[in-house]
Amino acid sequence: MRILSGIQPSGALHLGNYFGMMRPAIELQEKGEALYFIADYHSMTSLFDAEQRRRNTFDVALDFLACGLDPKKSIFFKQSDVPEVTELSWLLTTVTPMSLLEKCTSYKDKVAKGISPNHGLFAYPVLMAADILIYDSNIVPVGRDQKQHVEVTRDIAVKFNETYGQTFVIPEPQIREEGAVVPGTDGQKMSKSYGNTIEIFAEEKAIRKKLMGIVMDSRTPQEPKPDADKNLAVQLLKLIAPADVARDYEERLRAGGLGYGDLKKGLFENYWSYFAEARTKRAELAANPDYVRQVLREGAEKARALATKVLQRAKVASGLS
Ligand code: ADP
Ligand code: TRP
After folding, report:
1. Does the C-beta of 173 come closer than 6 Å to ligand 1?
2. Is residue 209 among the annotated active site residues?
3. Domains of the chain, first to last
């Protein structure tokens, strides 16, 4: 079984990325042949600062390795180190109906948020399809917001297979219920572009301030809160604290007597210890950049060997070769 996923180097990774994509991806590396990549080509649709892209790409590599991606088990690489994917993207784009891309909600959302709509942003699901199909991927672990793109990938693969004969494996998205949509500090979906993120790796003081600053309602601590399960801190605690600890906070909030200050303090403490080991690992990796670059180089070599074969299959099927 081939497992594949990617993440854009568009800013510091956060709890939404972690529970939506990274942790499931890391767990899946035990279950099959996993390929994970840093989607630097994709980041070009919305980030136009070369130095920042370079820095973010390295930071994503550090974050992912620190969180448990094991380069002995998974192939970990940078998307643009396998340029064959852009060639496949052209082959796919010619069998992609305009209407398929026009219905993609992620494009519409990004434009609504003020990102200027360049052609790359519109065509991005086709490049994502190429990312997935070029490795004969069976399973694609992603957060819920990416599900539609995997469905578009399936449609494109079917269309190509119908047009030129059986060429591509049809992939399945894998979305975990827990962590499918992690809420941000304002209760909306956590996202870099909403400015509501809780970073996986941030300075202690800054993150403490951010968590203590989460706005809650004006009910007194004594008041029982029958809607305790809807509380943002409780929802986050369910992700990062041991189950009994999270349950205890929820029950105390429901019964009344637990103040929001203490609840948020509990959230900070559990967050901080949840990533303690990863934080140490990240500092070690950051001190050893050559090792990190070597991991990506070796990953790219392995990925490229697989990609070249599938691209060639598609070229033969379509009469280019
Ligand atoms: P962002 O919205 O911050 O720009 P990305 O679009 O780069 O995040 O997402 C990278 C991966 O993380 C995707 O698989 C996406 O589904 C997942 N992801 C991002 N935010 C969340 C969230 N709030 N909850 C669950 N998964 C998320
Ligand atoms: N589009 C994904 C995101 O923004 C990143 C990505 C690019 C991806 N190519 C992919 C994810 C292929 C899974 C499979 O989060």
Report:
1. no
2. no
3. 2-182+289-317 (3.40.50.620), 202-274 (1.10.240.10)
Cα–Cα distances in Å, from 19 out to 25, 32, 134, 218, 285?
A: 10, 20, 26, 30, 22
CA 156, CA 231: separation in Å to the nearest integer? 41
For the chain, the residue count is: 321
- What pTM did the predictor assign? 0.94
Look at residue 114 in the predicted model and tell me its pLDDT.
84
What is the reported pLDDT for 301? 98
**Per-residue pLDDT at 255:** 96
Answer left, alpha or beta for residue 121, where phi above 0 means left and psi between -120 and 50 means alpha: alpha
pLDDT < 50 positions in the chain: none
Q: Return the half-sphere exposure (C-beta side, CA atoms, 13 A cut-off) of residue 239.
A: 28
Ligand 1 neighbourhood includes 45 CB (under 6 angstroms): no
CA end-to-end distance (rounded Å), the chain: 28
